[in-house]
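Here is the promised in-class demo. Please do not try to memorize the tokens; focus on the logic of going from shape to residues.
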């Protein structure tokens, strides 16, 4: 059944003219989900830095297929219209599993897109916050990933240019709109740029060999033929390393890790993914992938009729990677494990002819990780900010 609800109309006077906006809400089963997605193609039209994601995959995710976040609680979509033209959209929801584990009563917003109009922003966020308050929530944070992943998280507040694989790209006026509404900074998530040509191999190699020998660990490449076995080890590392202070994410279930690995396996080219073991105990892992955004940018969000051919042609020309995550068991975090994985990643970039690596996103308060990548030669060059809002004070 198609579910679409007219939320309300608002009339605003701007520069002597009256503007009529209306807002609708709908759930994940609605055909309006396609219009919701298509709005980003309209608002970023002509922007050479924007990278459209695959339309089919994104629509499936927004309908809830294979989406772990949507399985964790309710969500609702809002779109604002100026007559028949979409001028704003936002997804709002509740992660009940996060709230259960952390003891929160917190909601989230995601996939925020809006014309540069304060009234449109206010209309969307009023609707979303009213819905969350009606569900008993006392706080909202965002923008977060719509799938509990690392995609579309935060507004860009520092840096420019096209985003690297799965990272957000947003309008420069979004922070001002959301701050005017009353949202305040929650966290900054940092992206680092690494240039392999300025790296001194000999010095780092000597340090890594020393720490490996002293603490008795080894770095091994991810084995795509043993997804379940590798996922079990990664789950063990996650449970032993996940930061308690993260208020937007909890460690996924084993089933979630397995599904994530299966989803990423087609992108894995045999490089940049490692598991560290001490004897038979897994103590750290890293996931790095080629920057497929360089290919997606040329596909226009479509595989057909010619997108698949562009994918095959341009994937051979990818010149960068993104290190999405690196985690180390808390018991072993002072033993140079991250350093050893980064060294292997560097050696892989040399083998594959990669020009750069982005290491992201690292929470600004994660000083140990920041120091580690900076000591390795990476430079902070982009910041993605999430925001919070106290619904009880609204």
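The designed amino acids, position by position:
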């Amino acid at each position: 059944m198609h579910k679409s609800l007219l939320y309300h109309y608002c009339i605003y006077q701007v520069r002597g003219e009256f503007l009529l906006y209306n807002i609708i809400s709908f759930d994940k089963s609605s055909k309006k989900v396609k219009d919701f997605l298509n709005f980003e193609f309209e608002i970023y039209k002509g922007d050479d830095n924007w990278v459209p994601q695959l339309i089919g995959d994104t629509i499936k995710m927004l309908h809830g297929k294979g989406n772990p976040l949507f399985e964790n609680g309710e969500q609702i979509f809002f779109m604002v219209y100026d007559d028949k033209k979409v001028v704003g959209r936002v997804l709002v929801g509740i992660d009940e599993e996060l709230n259960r584990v952390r003891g929160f009563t917190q909601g989230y917003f995601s996939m925020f897109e809006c014309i540069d109009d304060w009234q449109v922003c206010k209309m969307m966020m009023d609707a979303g916050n009213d819905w969350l308050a009606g569900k008993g929530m006392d706080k909202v944070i965002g923008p977060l990933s719509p799938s509990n992943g690392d995609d579309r998280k935060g507004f860009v507040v520092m840096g420019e240019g096209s985003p690297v694989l799965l990272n957000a790209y947003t309008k420069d006026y979004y922070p001002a709109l959301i701050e005017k509404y009353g949202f305040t900074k929650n966290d900054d998530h940092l992206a680092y740029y690494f240039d392999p040509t300025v790296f001194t191999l000999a010095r780092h190699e000597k340090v890594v060999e020393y720490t490996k020998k002293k603490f008795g660990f080894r770095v091994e490449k991810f084995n795509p033929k043993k997804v379940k076995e590798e996922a079990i080890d990664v789950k063990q590392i996650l449970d032993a390393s996940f930061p308690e202070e993260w208020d937007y994410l909890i460690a996924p279930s084993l089933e979630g890790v397995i599904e994530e690995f299966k989803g990423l396996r087609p992108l894995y080219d045999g490089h940049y993914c490692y598991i560290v073991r001490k004897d038979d105990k897994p103590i750290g892992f890293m996931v790095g992938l080629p920057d497929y955004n360089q290919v997606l940018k040329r596909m226009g969000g479509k595989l057909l009729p010619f997108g698949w051919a562009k994918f095959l042609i341009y994937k051979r020309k990818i010149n960068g990677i993104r290190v999405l995550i690196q985690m180390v068991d808390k018991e072993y975090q002072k033993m140079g494990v991250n350093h050893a994985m980064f060294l292997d990643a560097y050696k892989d970039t040399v083998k594959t002819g990669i020009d750069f690596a982005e290491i992201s996103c690292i929470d600004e308060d994660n000083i140990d990780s920041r120091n580690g990548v900076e000591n390795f030669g990476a430079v902070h060059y982009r910041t993605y900010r999430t925001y919070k809002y106290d619904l009880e004070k609204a």
